[in-house]
Amino acid sequence: MHQRLISSADGIQNGRKARFSGCGSPVRFMNHPAPANSRYKPTCYEHAANCYTHAFLIVPAIVGSALLHRLSDDRWEKITAWIYGMGLCALFIVSTVFHIVSWKKSHLRTMEHCFHMCDRMMIYVFIAASYAPWLNLRELGPLASHMRWFIWLMAAGGTVYVFLYHEKYKIVELFFYLAMGFSPALVVTSMSNTEGLEEVAWGGLIYCLGVVFFKSDGVIPFAHAIWHVFVATAAAVHYYAIWKYLYRSPADIIRHL
Fold first, then answer.
1. Where does the sequence pass through the membrane (predicted)?
2. Structural domains in the chain plus CATH codes
């Protein structure tokens, strides 16, 4: 009898542990922080939020990219619109696919790991693509013009780093993201035409504030989904600046005065 009671108690306790990260658990909104150099395991509610916060932005990103391409006056503007648009759309698509795989196909460890690497690599590509319109379409000095290709060299280096050291040195990876985000800003602010740079700065500030949530999984409920919202907001601010100051025609501006 005593042995049965012990077995029954163990079963209840194990059942509670199994439901810890489930949707019916009292702690369904957040799990414990991940150990060092390990990935956080979201609850099912967090998984859903991670998917939807970027999935809803795929169509607007495609439409916005097509608009910039249509507003282009020459071949170089069209190429730049294509580069920026591909980076913007790919960021949200790859992020959404990864979070769906992580949520629904987490047992396929190799596939999940591959998509997680792609998700991290896309951050480097997106940073480079976000600066492309300003570096390509604004007049730069002889030294500053080298940033047009150097930023893509940094993006390539970042993708190689993710391939070799994914999830091993998280602080180093975060430093690379921030360094790549700030380095071109030093060149952009030296332009003779500074229209739109205030919006670029505000977008950068929003990204930086979002990093707090990017590093707060297991500390703040839905931290990663909140990070997605910061990314979407900053990307919208940057898109508005690119549309208004680099692609919107003078006739449109006069018409709306």
1. 49-69, 81-101, 121-137, 149-165, 174-192, 225-247
2. 42-255 (1.20.1070)
Contact 137, 82 (CB under 8 A): no
Type of residue numbered 225: A
pTM of the model: 0.83
Q: Are 176 and 159 in contact (CB under 8 A)?
A: no
The tens place of each residue's pLDDT in the chain, 257 residues long, gives 445 544 444 444 444 444 444 454 445 777 777 777 677 888 889 999 999 999 999 999 999 999 999 999 999 999 999 999 999 999 999 999 999 998 887 677 888 889 999 999 999 999 999 999 999 999 887 777 889 999 999 999 999 999 998 878 888 888 999 999 988 888 877 788 889 999 999 999 999 999 999 988 888 999 999 999 999 999 999 999 999 999 976 556 555 44
Number of CB atoms found within 10 A of residue 199's CB: 17
Amino acid at 188: V
- Residue ranges of the binding site for Zn(2+): 99, 224, 228
Q: Residues annotated as binding site?
A: 99, 224, 228
